[in-house]
From TrEMBL:
Source organism phylogeny: Bacteria, Pseudomonadati, Pseudomonadota, Alphaproteobacteria, Hyphomicrobiales
Family to which the UniProt record says this protein belongs: Belongs to the HAD-like hydrolase superfamily. CbbY/CbbZ/Gph/YieH family.
Cofactor(s) demanded: Mg(2+)
Coiled coil segments of this chain: none
Name of the featured protein: Haloacid dehalogenase superfamily, subfamily IA, variant 3 with third motif having DD or ED
Transmembrane regions: none
UniProt key word Nucleus: no
Superkingdom of the organism of origin: Bacteria
Gene source species: Aureimonas jatrophae
Matching Gene3D superfamilies: HAD superfamily/HAD-like (3.40.50.1000), Putative phosphatase, domain 2 (1.10.150.240)
Length: 227
């Protein structure tokens, strides 16, 4: 079935921000007395909102977060992203060759998306089609499928005609639940051993590590049936 739309996750797919977030979270959690490596944060929590991460750590380890923790985490991460985040290699070349309509569907806020996309010169390549899950439609974040269904609705495109590129298990699960065709991406600095297998198990039909391969995958999917 030919594809009509491509929806991208942002963090870890278009911009190499997941590793920055993991390092920031690891440092802040250490101050609370909880030791965790950035790599473990990437494996366990990539694709989740900060609020959900805090909920899980509270339930699993009894962590007590100060009232100002979420705001402090937001400020510190935003500052680091403004100074450090880079585009995933090949993203502009890929977009130059991609002919289908495209949009971003992310768990990040619009404010944060603007920070990373403007720094990497990607904001103008997507706006106004930059959708923050917590701010559009039902406002349910991934792993709920809602933001991907919302993206499809904006272009009046059926999910089965939509390709999603995702780097996290939670994001792949969201896109698959929406009924989209899903490609896993393991080209970010936060990738880990077993990453590709985890994305496949979550519902990705194939996995790539180079963004420049996306246009070729779009062409190939026209002849593939989901298995």
């Amino acid at each position: 079935m030919p594809l009509s739309l491509v929806l991208f996750d942002c963090d870890g797919v278009l911009v190499d921000s997941e590793i920055v977030a993991s390092r920031t979270d690891a440092a802040l959690l250490k101050e609370l007395g909880y030791e965790i490596d950035p790599e473990e944060i990437s494996v366990r929590f990539s694709g989740l909102t900060q609020e959900r991460i805090m909920e899980l750590l509270t339930a699993e380890h009894g962590l007590r977060f100060p009232d100002d923790y979420r705001e402090r985490q937001r400020r510190e991460l935003d500052d680091r992203l403004r100074a450090e985040v880079e585009a995933i290699p090949g993203v502009h070349e890929m977009l130059d060759k991609l002919e289908l309509p495209r949009a971003i569907c992310s768990n990040s806020s619009t404010d944060r998306l603007r920070i990373v996309l403007e720094r990497t010169k990607l904001w103008d390549r997507f706006r106004p089609y930059v959708f923050a899950a917590g701010e559009v439609g039902t406002k349910r974040t991934k792993p709920a499928p809602d933001v991907y269904l919302f993206g499809c609705e904006q272009f009046e495109t059926a999910p089965r005609e939509t390709l999603v590129l995702e780097d996290s298990v939670h994001g792949v699960a969201a896109a698959a639940a929406a009924g989209c065709r899903v490609v896993g991406f393991v080209g970010g600095s936060h990738t880990y051993p077993g990453h590709a297998d985890a994305l496949t198990e979550a519902g990705a039909e194939t996995v790539i590590r180079r963004l420049v391969d996306v246009p070729g995958v779009v062409d190939a999917f026209a002849g593939w049936e989901n298995v």
